[in-house]
Amino acid sequence: QVQLQESGPGLVKPSETLSLTCTVSGYSITTYYWSWIRQPPGKGLEWIGYIYYSGSTYYNPSLKSRVTISVDTSKNQFSLKLTSVTAADTAVYYCARIYSERWLPYFFDFWGQGTLVTVPS
Amino acid sequence: QSALTQPASVSGSPGQSIAISCTGTGSDVGSYNLVSWYQQHPGKAPKVIIYEVNKRPSGVSDRFSGSKSGNTASLTIAGLQAEDEADYYCCSCADSNTLVFGGGTKLTVL
User: Fold this and answer.
1) Chain A residue with minimal CA distance to B105?
2) Taking chain A (121 residues) in consecutive chunks of 10 residues, what is each chunk's mean pLDDT?
């Protein structure tokens, strides 16, 4: 069974960089796409971006200038960095696997439990 | 890239059927048969209930069904049950291999 677990600081200061890691177990990260999604408290889901193990990345245009997603196949992990954070970046951050075919992202089939990151105002 | 449009809330009584719409554009819903739907209970991670417009993952009740016409996709839940009360999100593949979610719909079972 595929399992994903987010880890990283729960509190980030304004203007600093948010860094999270997703550890994948039960499946090799060298297949399918791997993604980050966030959800501000009481609000909807927002797709952040995803990565293929080769390093190819796709980002939400609204966040692209501040986001970097990377992968470490030796640890079966992928990571998120979000720079210059503000209170608006306070959210539960989820990592997820994207089922894909023919290089298209089909749907999110496995999710982590999510981790709350707070940026104080 | 704008969020897909969903109604903020819908409600129904046990046993009834409800539908949730998800309206996009020709750059997402209208161009790809890659619409998926997610159910999220409070404090939990979302769970896929429909993918590729109308396919159900193993273990998902056949009371859930999906469809699409033009730029609008729909999720129908038949025979409402109390456990269906949750937030529902649509998601679509969009141009440049990106993804976009809907704003979410809160389903209340009366």
Assistant:
1) A44
2) 97 98 96 96 97 93 97 96 98 97 92 98 91
